[in-house]
Amino acid sequence: MCHRSQDECHTAGVPVFASVAAYAPPGVGLLAVGIVTEVFGPHGAQLPGFDLTLCTERPGPVPTDLGVPLTVAHGLDRLASADLVIALPWAGFRTPPPPAVLDALSAAHERGAVVAAHCVGAFALAAAGLLDGRRATTHWRFAGLLAHRHPDVRVEPDALYIDEGRILTGAGAAAGFDLCLHLLRREYGAAVANTVARDVVLPSHRDGGQAQYLAAPVPADCGDDRLTEVLAWARDNLHEPLPVAELARRAVMSKRSFARRFTAATGTTPHAWLRSLRLSSAEELLETTDLPVEEIARRVGYASAAVLREHFVRRRGVPPRSYRRSFTTTP
After folding, report:
1. DSSP H or E run through 317
2. How many CB atoms within 10 Å of residue 151?
């Protein structure tokens, strides 16, 4: 979850980041490069355009984890001006980055940039001292090593991503998508994040507390036709109460069997999944429509605007009307 209020995340309706610099060390993971370029690359005129730059300590050919060199034209100076700095994972993470890189990451944070990393990229942030006293995650396979080497970091090995305000870390491999989409959702709203997710054919939102490794982490393609159909039906009928007993009945299962199979497929409980889905839908309606909050509450399945407000404040830190204003304020 985001630990800042919406007002802290936005100033006069303007998101925190527009320029993105991704640090690509020697041995950089090509999957990670693909993730940042997919999420922060162009997605059409209706979406925000980001000034995305790959940078490295010595510009030129940079070896990657697959042995295919990557030409990186920019140096560390790009870390000094970007709004969002991402330390990409690399094959040699057991050796700390050079002092110049650590200094550049620390300086970026000190001047107010958002600094993020996923997978073993978190080792670079830890080596720079940016994770001391904070919660952080990394690939589950290397969480123990991160905790051993940096005892001042509160490592949470099961988290998909952790948001500590201007410092964010994510789990391994494709969890980089989750981290980047979370950043888009946090700063630009659900509608933008959902559109980008659709472009890259990914689920629009997986909560950061969701387990890293699941039998089937994407509910829409869980390998169980009955469960898939029930989840799709629930999405189309959020205005209904949707008790677990009804979902289980539609899946032709007992409540206990349904709950067990649901958690195995999604990594969360039916109640938590529905709550997240209702609130995400409410966010998008607040951003993209002029519907009264009372009507939005009805459409996403809350008994009243007051109940929606209670859950919304718990998730976002601000009431629905304040959230809407942060996305409708014109520069």
Report:
1. none
2. 10
Beta strands per DSSP E along the chain:
19-23, 51-55, 60-62, 70-72, 84-87, 114-118, 135-136, 154-155, 161-163, 167-170
Residues 265-285, buried b or exposed e (16+ Cβ, 10 A)?
bbbbebeebbbbbbbbbbbbb
Separation of alpha carbons 160 and 156, rounded Å: 9
Q: Which amino acid is at 1?
A: M
- Could you tell me the end-to-end alpha-carbon distance of the chain, in angstroms, rounded to an integer? 27
- Token pair for residue 5? 């209020």
Residue pair 148/123 in contact (Cβ under 8 Å)? The answer is no
For the chain (331 residues), the mean pLDDT of every run of 10, in chain order, is 38 66 97 95 84 97 95 97 97 96 98 97 98 96 94 92 95 90 90 85 57 39 70 92 94 92 83 89 89 96 95 85 71 39
